[in-house]
Design goal:
BirA Bifunctional Protein, domain 2; binds phenylalanine; alpha+beta; 20 helices; single chain
Amino acid sequence: MELRTQDWKVLRAVRELGGRCLLRDVVDSSGLAHAAVARSVLALEEAGLLKVEERRRVDARLTEEGASYAADGLPERRLLDAVLRLGGEADLEAAAEEAGLSGDLLSIAVGWARRKGWAAVSEGRIRASTTRPPPRDEDEQLLRMLAGGGTVEVGTLEPSLREAAKRLERRGLLELEERTLRVLEITQAGLEALEAGPPKAEEITQLTPELIVSGAWRGVKLRKFDVKAPVPVVYPGRLHPVQQIINWIREIFLEMGFTEIRGPIVELAFWNFDALFQPQDHPAREMQDTFYLLEPNRGVLPREELVDAVAKTHENGWKTGSRGWGYRWSREEASKLVLRTHTTAVTIRYLSEHKEPPVWVFSVDRVYRNEKVDYKHLAEFHQIEGIIMDKGVTLRDLMGILTEFYRKMGLERVQFWPSYFPYTEPSMQSTVYVPELKAWVELCGMGLFRPEVLAPMGVKYPVLAWGGGLERLVMIKLGVDDIRELYRNRLSWIRRAPTCL
Ligand code: PHE
């Protein structure tokens, strides 16, 4: 391996920097581009003239929220100060007002003030545990170190501050960024190579028109590309990882011959439930699951003939051969407005206007459920939904289509088993095997729409339908185990989420 002038210069720069330094220092002192230095370092390492050691380092910096606390004080500190100003004990409300804290911020303040042993709360009163403000704690010391937008290497902090860094990261006040540093050290052979002076023959890194026209290229030495040479990390603009996966799923549906449809987010209970033969006293309709609109709280039902058919089907089965639910169907209940709880509302609405086969449509869109948000649940999330209406389609087709759909997503092992939905018969649930998790994960529910659903719509052919959550799939694909991460907009996560799935 022959040295190029540039490699020699890099080697010399390392010696001048004391024989041991960071790759970055060489970039700064030589004025060469990072990529150029990195390439030389690689060549020098290969030639045994440099030793290269990788060191990971984690830098902390404040998030926007963290920066605001660095300026105004942590909420728990502001609360404690307020209580002390009020004489060491006060109504929580009064203390909150004195501190200028409300809502979420107040509960955060109370939570941490208790945890830090600064105050106790009972029966709406808050009591400070000390008469004087305690000294700045680790969280506050760290905030101060970082105020003004600087960074600190977490590994250089003392253990208690390192703990604080973890705590503040969980609170969303700090962002941790991991970087790899390359430490270079010149070897004995390297020192000798420097003594021997700069190389004479030069390898050509760029083939120019002159070299080609003059024929000189025949006589020169061309340098090989090294596609593995390290380069600085760049963070170009990109789509949000969830949006990327949505687009990818759209492509899969489109490849399979489906057309995308959309429907309203604010939907009539009629389409979200009644048209799907969900009884009006079905638990899913209750307030704890469904968001009902307050203003306006009623919408306009579709054409009378359709409403009438749905009403009769619920009441006595109409002409479907079913006995129905055997109650008096309420127009009131059906004209309530809800935030749609599933995208099946979108497909049934579409079917009511498209009765001629074939219909192959899908939707990937938002749905809403009144869930307590935790690592597994969100109140606003996405569903994937598809239907096929065609002459003679069967359950086997449905299983085949689903298997193909999953296969295109890289999920090869699929299982189906009987399940229940009010609007399909037979109904099935499907799970896929996720090798990364070594587990079977439930994805889509499916089935054939019941006659009680199809007859009122005037649909004469079988309809295969399936639907399921999108976020679970996204989490599998991105290796995320807390669903909230997907929408927290933590830049460090968004930047590092894989682009190629
Ligand atoms: N709507 C169902 C859900 O939200 C899924 C489903 C769609 C089931 C279509 C059967 C047919 O879980």
